[in-house]
Amino acid sequence: MYESLTPAPGPVMPERVRRNRASQPVASRVLGGNSEVRSVVVLGATGSVGSQAIDVIAASPSRFRAVVLAAGGANPGLLARQALRTGARAVAVTDPSAVEAFTAAFAALARAAGTPRHPLPVMLPGTEGLSAAAGWPCDVLLNALPGAAGLPATLTALEAGSLVALANKESLVAGGPLIARAARPGQLVPVDSEHSAIMQCLPGWAYGCPTHGIQRLILTCSGGPFRTHTAEQLAAVTPAQALDHPTWRMGPLVTVNSATLVNKGLEIIEAQALFALGYDRITAVIHPHPQSVVHSMAEYADGSTLAQTAPPDMRLPIATALAWPQRPPPSVIAPCDWTGSHTWTFEPVDTDRFPALVLARHAGSLGGSSPAVYNAANEEAVAAFLAGAIPFTAITQTIEHVLTHHVPIPDHDLTLEAVNATDAWARHHAREHLHTATPAPVRHTRKGD
Ligand SMILES: NC(=O)c1ccc[n+]([C@@H]2O[C@H](COP(=O)([O-])OP(=O)(O)OC[C@H]3O[C@@H](n4cnc5c(N)ncnc54)[C@H](OP(=O)(O)O)[C@@H]3O)[C@@H](O)[C@H]2O)c1
């Protein structure tokens, strides 16, 4: 039974196809009618964003078709289910040792579905496989990899001429100048709910004059689970508490980033890179859970403020990016119920307790390699926090320390190698700082514990 599974025909994308697509204007493809079925590559298919993208794609076969899925290999069973469900032609698994488990799971699922001869997707193992997936010819590539490691994939997809639906904000944070050089107008579409909201409030975004008349962009923020914590309570937060986000179910890194507000800091840098406004014109405001329906706003110089609202559900911004500049398919999620009473509240961010925003503006204003340092130092500190080695508040202290010791490489000298070297330097420096200067976490215990 197992042997009857044969790889689907078709090689990895020929170079000729890649070059042809890269020379086509993006707009000529993405502005096509709603009747077009868009071919989609999903990087990070088994993650939080990736899995929801698979749901969106599978629910709208008349609009989307998954052609390639990519994941690390930690969850071969889920990846096999997704491959069978979507009929993807190729599957990339970065950990080559997971290919066997994927193949076995795919075979078992195909048998259970009564289709034992279902062709096995073309397997793309290792980092070369991920790169092949990123450059695969498609209409839209969704980059839902976590961390700055997603940058090469973003650059490869841009070079291949795909519309890039970017969930992996760290790409833009670490390599903003590289992406700005590689992307053609309209080629990059944000997936983050805040940036998706802003994009939808900018009628000129799809046509190359995105911020005409704009005074300020306002990113909303749930404030995370510790919005009302005192400084002392913040110092005693545990990893389990930090992983319990009030609004969104996300991967561990982005969940902790939401709790420290580093995520909002990354989003401010992301907004600057996407919408090209100065940092003094991009701000964040807390719109607390359980409201979380105003996803962000664009304030115009004429006095209008446009906001995009919807229940908090990532499937909508994912579908918006996959369909952009068309509207997504109907019924991706149910809209807000406007027949009942609603109260929306907004409050400023307390940057004394949550310094991540100040640090992000500082890193962003320094420019060049500094945002990559902000991101890499944070990732190291989050890993140490999740391992129980440092207190919650040491995460932003580590970012500040590493940023202070960094001599930025300017925008025009930034290359992928320089970003990688900066990333490695910042991680090393963060680890050293964490080993030598960071106190052990404070854990308050109840009497008798
Ligand atoms: N989650 C959200 O609601 C949300 C919202 C907005 C933006 N984002 C952004 O979206 C990105 C993804 O977040 P997430 O929460 O979906 O992350 P996640 O749940 O941790 O998922 C990460 C995905 O990437 C895969 N992956 C990890 N390392 C890989 C590698 N070296 N090669 C290939 N695949 C690899 C994982 O595969 P395995 O399962 O095999 O490890 C998994 O499929 C982040 O940049 C985040 O900031 C997330």
UniProtKB/TrEMBL annotation:
<dbReference type="Pfam" id="PF13288">
    <property type="entry name" value="DXPR_C"/>
</dbReference>
<dbReference type="InterPro" id="IPR036291">
    <property type="entry name" value="NAD(P)-bd_dom_sf"/>
</dbReference>
<feature type="binding site">
    <location>
        <position position="251"/>
    </location>
    <ligand>
        <name>NADPH</name>
    </ligand>
</feature>
<dbReference type="InterPro" id="IPR013644">
    <property type="entry name" value="DXP_reductoisomerase_C"/>
</dbReference>
<feature type="binding site">
    <location>
        <position position="245"/>
    </location>
    <ligand>
        <name>1-deoxy-D-xylulose 5-phosphate</name>
    </ligand>
</feature>
<feature type="binding site">
    <location>
        <position position="263"/>
    </location>
    <ligand>
        <name>1-deoxy-D-xylulose 5-phosphate</name>
    </ligand>
</feature>
<dbReference type="GO" id="GO:0030145">
    <property type="term" value="F:manganese ion binding"/>
</dbReference>
<keyword id="KW-0560">Oxidoreductase</keyword>
<keyword id="KW-0521">NADP</keyword>
<feature type="binding site">
    <location>
        <position position="46"/>
    </location>
    <ligand>
        <name>NADPH</name>
    </ligand>
</feature>
<dbReference type="InterPro" id="IPR026877">
    <property type="entry name" value="DXPR_C"/>
</dbReference>
<comment type="similarity">
    <text>Belongs to the DXR family.</text>
</comment>
<feature type="region of interest" description="Disordered">
    <location>
        <begin position="1"/>
        <end position="21"/>
    </location>
</feature>
<dbReference type="InterPro" id="IPR013512">
    <property type="entry name" value="DXP_reductoisomerase_N"/>
</dbReference>
<feature type="binding site">
    <location>
        <position position="194"/>
    </location>
    <ligand>
        <name>1-deoxy-D-xylulose 5-phosphate</name>
    </ligand>
</feature>
<feature type="binding site">
    <location>
        <position position="222"/>
    </location>
    <ligand>
        <name>1-deoxy-D-xylulose 5-phosphate</name>
    </ligand>
</feature>
<feature type="binding site">
    <location>
        <position position="267"/>
    </location>
    <ligand>
        <name>Mn(2+)</name>
    </ligand>
</feature>
<feature type="binding site">
    <location>
        <position position="169"/>
    </location>
    <ligand>
        <name>1-deoxy-D-xylulose 5-phosphate</name>
    </ligand>
</feature>
<feature type="binding site">
    <location>
        <position position="170"/>
    </location>
    <ligand>
        <name>NADPH</name>
    </ligand>
</feature>
<keyword id="KW-0460">Magnesium</keyword>
<feature type="domain" description="1-deoxy-D-xylulose 5-phosphate reductoisomerase N-terminal">
    <location>
        <begin position="40"/>
        <end position="176"/>
    </location>
</feature>
<keyword id="KW-0414">Isoprene biosynthesis</keyword>
<dbReference type="GO" id="GO:0070402">
    <property type="term" value="F:NADPH binding"/>
</dbReference>
<feature type="binding site">
    <location>
        <position position="48"/>
    </location>
    <ligand>
        <name>NADPH</name>
    </ligand>
</feature>
<keyword id="KW-0413">Isomerase</keyword>
<feature type="binding site">
    <location>
        <position position="75"/>
    </location>
    <ligand>
        <name>NADPH</name>
    </ligand>
</feature>
<dbReference type="GO" id="GO:0016853">
    <property type="term" value="F:isomerase activity"/>
</dbReference>
<dbReference type="Pfam" id="PF02670">
    <property type="entry name" value="DXP_reductoisom"/>
</dbReference>
<feature type="binding site">
    <location>
        <position position="193"/>
    </location>
    <ligand>
        <name>1-deoxy-D-xylulose 5-phosphate</name>
    </ligand>
</feature>
<feature type="binding site">
    <location>
        <position position="72"/>
    </location>
    <ligand>
        <name>NADPH</name>
    </ligand>
</feature>
<feature type="binding site">
    <location>
        <position position="47"/>
    </location>
    <ligand>
        <name>NADPH</name>
    </ligand>
</feature>
<dbReference type="InterPro" id="IPR036169">
    <property type="entry name" value="DXPR_C_sf"/>
</dbReference>
<dbReference type="Pfam" id="PF08436">
    <property type="entry name" value="DXP_redisom_C"/>
</dbReference>
<comment type="pathway">
    <text>Isoprenoid biosynthesis; isopentenyl diphosphate biosynthesis via DXP pathway; isopentenyl diphosphate from 1-deoxy-D-xylulose 5-phosphate: step 1/6.</text>
</comment>
<protein>
    <recommendedName>
        <fullName>1-deoxy-D-xylulose 5-phosphate reductoisomerase</fullName>
        <ecNumber>1.1.1.267</ecNumber>
    </recommendedName>
</protein>
<feature type="domain" description="DXP reductoisomerase C-terminal">
    <location>
        <begin position="310"/>
        <end position="428"/>
    </location>
</feature>
<dbReference type="InterPro" id="IPR003821">
    <property type="entry name" value="DXP_reductoisomerase"/>
</dbReference>
<dbReference type="GO" id="GO:0051484">
    <property type="term" value="P:isopentenyl diphosphate biosynthetic process, methylerythritol 4-phosphate pathway involved in terpenoid biosynthetic process"/>
</dbReference>
<feature type="binding site">
    <location>
        <position position="264"/>
    </location>
    <ligand>
        <name>1-deoxy-D-xylulose 5-phosphate</name>
    </ligand>
</feature>
<comment type="function">
    <text>Catalyzes the NADPH-dependent rearrangement and reduction of 1-deoxy-D-xylulose-5-phosphate (DXP) to 2-C-methyl-D-erythritol 4-phosphate (MEP).</text>
</comment>
<feature type="binding site">
    <location>
        <position position="192"/>
    </location>
    <ligand>
        <name>Mn(2+)</name>
    </ligand>
</feature>
<keyword id="KW-0464">Manganese</keyword>
